[in-house]
Design a protein that fits this description.
Belongs to the G-protein coupled receptor 1 family. This is C-C chemokine receptor type 6-like. GO terms for molecular function: C-C chemokine binding; C-C chemokine receptor activity. Pfam families: 7tm_1. By secondary structure, the protein is mainly α. It is built from 14 helices and four strands. The chain folds into two domains: 324 residues, Rhopdopsin 7-helix transmembrane proteins (Up-down Bundle); 33 residues. A four-stranded mixed beta sheet has the order 1-2-4-3. Helix 3 runs parallel beside helix 6, helix 4 packs parallel to helix 9 and helix 9 packs antiparallel against helix 10. The chain is globular and about 60 Å long.
């Protein structure tokens, strides 16, 4: 079993390249950085991301009907982010303690990560395109911005994301790396010329689960060489560069149109989307720069200091990229007035439901008193606001 410089393995020993025989660098110096980042910071991102995106989904499900293409796109972005942060804790736990789950879970979780990555980025590009049509091509917007058309586009985006994630579903596996202590013990044991039986006593102190990983594993070196370039290149091109170019073109034309019209009231309609795009650039540009550097130098015999620095940079910038999952709902809450009002109604309803569960009799009496008071006020000609409820 051959090992590569990034922990990815091939299962065919018949073909060997230089990058296969070079001993991997010792990454123990990076363990403290990865532990802090992956365990603590990622946990905070998971909590905030789940809370914020669930609020967005609940808002669209019970309080705000998706009436425009932008609403449909933002709802799908929230779903993609929620699925991503929901899978992240399982990935973090298994990476820190050894992959305890099976191969199917390895493929599904890593595949879900890839699908949600592509779909989220492409949907942001769709949002900017929708804003471009609504403002720059206003005359055509009524024909092009139908709900049916938006749902077809979302289905196409999710299908494309699934197609681009096929290598992850196919080549991710659960296995013991050859360069681990346990892997070396098994691989270096000479079964044919052994004069003594397999010594289990020497492996008592080893736990196989501590060495099992979930990573790319290729059938041969040729496939490994191709995929180790193709997968990150596709991620950078489709998952970052393409959405960035689309957003740049659309929002540049939107700004020009707004300046010509001298009507800055229309600018408020795109403030939320524009803020989301800015967050997208700030979050994802550093990671893609680090990923580009790592891809370009994939098969170079770099010093271990450079390899260590690259891995630390990828870990830190990847965490910054994860932030977009929990920052998007915050932007909706602080910038979007309607979202802020809907969130307030959600909090009020959850508070009322909690009081009813904790003290049903008192809640029923208070509700009756409030109903009588409301009837009396209506008889006196007073107007009251309708209470919020879980209705469309």
């Amino acid at each position: 079993m051959n090992h590569t410089d990034n922990g990815e393995e091939t299962v065919n020993n018949s073909v060997a390249y230089d990058y296969d025989v070079v001993e991997p660098c010792n990454m123990e110096d990076n363990n403290s950085v990865e532990t802090v980042v992956r365990l603590y910071i990622h946990s905070v991102i998971c909590i905030l991301g789940l809370l914020g995106n669930i609020l967005v989904i609940v808002t669209y499900a019970f309080y705000k009907k998706a009436k425009s293409m932008t609403d449909v796109y933002l709802l799908n972005v929230a779903i993609a982010d929620m699925l991503f942060v929901a899978a992240l804790p399982l990935i973090i736990y298994n990476e820190q303690s050894g992959w305890a789950m099976g191969t199917v879970a390895c493929k599904v979780l890593r595949g879900a990560y890839s699908v949600n990555l592509y779909s989220g980025m492409l949907l942001l590009a769709c949002i900017s395109t929708d804003r471009y049509i609504a403002i720059v091509q206003a005359r055509r917007s009524f024909r092009l911005r139908s709900l049916i058309f938006s749902r077809i586009i979302c289905a196409a985006v999710w299908s494309l994301a699934l197609l681009l994630s096929v290598p992850t579903f196919v080549y991710y596996e659960r296995y013991v790396p050859a360069h681990s202590t346990l892997g070396n013990y098994y691989d270096n044991y000479d079964y044919n010329n052994a004069t003594t039986p397999f010594d289990l006593e020497n492996t008592i102190f080893l736990e196989e689960e501590d060495y099992v990983v979930c990573n790319f594993r290729f059938p041969d070196n040729a496939t490994a060489r191709q995929m180790k370039i193709l997968v990150p290149s596709t991620q950078m091109a489709v998952g970052f560069l393409l959405p960035l170019l689309v957003m740049g073109f659309c929002y540049a034309n939107i700004i020009v149109t707004l300046l010509r019209a001298k009507n800055f009231q229309r600018h408020k309609a795109v403030r939320v989307v524009l803020a989301v795009v800015v967050v997208f650039i700030i979050c994802h540009l550093p990671y893609n720069v680090a990923l580009l550097y790592d891809t370009v130098n994939k098969f170079q015999n770099l010093a271990c200091s450079h390899v260590d620095a690259t891995e630390v940079a990828k870990t830190v910038t990847e965490t910054v990229a994860y932030l977009h999952c929990c920052l998007n709902p915050v932007l909706y809450a602080f910038i979007g007035v309607k979202f802020r009002n809907h969130f307030r109604k959600i909090v009020e309803d959850v508070w009322c439901i909690g009081k009813r569960v904790m003290n049903p009799r008192r809640f029923s009496r208070a509700t009756s008193e409030m109903y009588v008071s409301t009837v009396r006020k209506s008889m006196d000609g007073s107007s009251t606001d309708n209470a919020s409820s879980f209705t469309m």
